[in-house]
Write a structure and sequence with these properties.
- Helix 3 links the parallel strand 2 and strand 3.
- The protein has 16 helices and 8 strands.
- The protein starts with a helix and ends in a 10-residue tail after the last helix.
- It folds into 2 domains: 206 residues, HUPs (Rossmann fold, 3-Layer(aba) Sandwich), CATH 3.40.50.620; 115 residues, Orthogonal Bundle (Tyrosyl-Transfer RNA Synthetase).
- It is of the alpha/beta class.
- The strands form 2 sheets. Strands 1-6-5-2-3-4 form a 6-stranded mixed β-sheet, with helices on both faces. It has a two-stranded antiparallel sheet with strand order 7-8.
Length: 359
């Protein structure tokens, strides 16, 4: 496969940004199989924004000859108070339910490395953390805590100051050529990239689109400053801490249909419409989408791509309920392997109790 094709695979949706494309080209010229990583806190159930989007993207990376790593960030989860701050529970769920959530979506250990962070942390790693902290101001570090899903003024424990330094050190310790995350992780990647040049550990940062929750997003104030925009991003994204905003990868067909039926989806409005985004980034990413409706309402309609979807929706030629029905049907089909996997492997799903769903 030629380099340009590999670059296009990396850039495919839901990726929004590659920093930088020229650096990515250099990596492919230098490495036959570049190393990649994406890190996850261990908390509650896995939803389509984290699980499904990541699984779809890693398939692109694998096709491009990249070796992916899913980093199960147990110490990071502990610092951020996930699962009640119970480190043992975090580790058990990380190597159990959380790992198998990705396996249920078609990723396995023959193609993807699953790494529990604490198993790699040694004296050299903590030395790297201190080095990053030494080379970064407190103000810059505090600006980076938005990567934890927190706003800058939310910090309550001094341990959160270590979090960005640890995440940067993870990249250097794993010696990856590609660091992958959602757009909400951009700040720490930019910090790590700045340091990487002097550390001689250069890497490319790849940032994916964040799916909004079912409640939708509000129109961004055009005069909003950077902090306000970041806070809006945190508030709008799909989150397991707001269960009704999320579709979990093993939800039943009835749950998926019920959640989407209640979702925000105003007629002739595309911006901030979660159902439009689910169609664009999940359904239409690899296939066409069929709208099934009676002849008196226009008959069946085949949507080829996101541009066509937005055009017909803005023109009022597609009713919200018809769109919801189509997206529900397609997501039920896409998530069928995960439902079936957990039905056969109930012990992993049983690791997550009802109170853990939102933590």
């Amino acid at each position: 496969m030629d380099i340009e094709t590999r670059i296009e695979l990396v850039k495919r949706a839901p990726i929004e940004e590659v920093v930088t494309e020229q650096d990515l080209r250099t990596i492919f010229e230098t490495y036959a199989h570049p190393k990649h990583y994406i890190g996850f806190e261990i908390s509650g159930m896995v939803h389509i924004g984290s699980g499904l989007c990541t699984s779809l993207k890693l398939r692109d990376f694998i096709q491009a000859g990249i070796k992916p790593t899913i980093f199960l960030a147990d110490y990071h989860s502990y610092i951020n108070g996930k699962l009640g701050g119970d480190l043992k529970k975090i580790q058990e769920i990380g190597t159990g339910y959380f790992k198998h959530a990705f396996i249920s979506l078609g990723l396995d250990e023959s193609k993807v490395d699953f790494v529990l962070a604490s198993e790699l942390y040694d004296s050299e790693y903590w030395k790297e953390v201190l080095k990053v902290a030494k080379d970064t101001t407190i103000k810059r570090m505090l600006r980076c805590i938005t990567i934890m899903g927190r706003k800058e003024g939310d910090a309550t424990s001094s341990a959160v100051v270590l979090y960005p330094a640890m995440q940067a050190a993870d990249i250097f310790m794993l010696d990856v050529q590609i660091a992958h995350a959602g757009m909400d992780q951009r700040k720490v990647h930019m910090l790590a990239r700045e340091l990487s040049h002097s550390y001689k550990k250069d890497f490319v940062a790849v940032h994916g689109h964040l799916l909004p929750g079912l409640q939708g997003t509000q129109r961004m104030n055009p005069t909003a400053n950077e902090e306000e925009k970041e806070n809006a991003l945190i508030d709008a994204k799909m989150s397991k801490s707001v269960p009704n905003s999320a579709i979990f990868i093993h939800d039943s067909e009835e749950e998926i249909k019920s959640k989407i039926k209640k979702a925000y989806c105003p007629e002739k409005i595309v911006e901030g419409n979660p159902i439009i985004e689910y169609a664009e980034y999940l359904v239409l990413r690899d296939n066409k989408m069929k709208i099934e409706r009676p002849a008196k309402f226009g008959g069946d309609l085949e949507i080829v791509d996101a541009e066509e979807l937005k055009r017909v929706y803005l023109d009022g030629k597609l009713h919200p309920m018809d769109l919801k029905n189509a997206v529900s049907r397609e997501l039920c089909d896409i998530l069928k392997p995960s439902r079936e996997y957990f039905a056969k492997n109930k012990q992993y799903l049983e690791q997550i109790s009802a109170k853990d769903i939102t933590r």
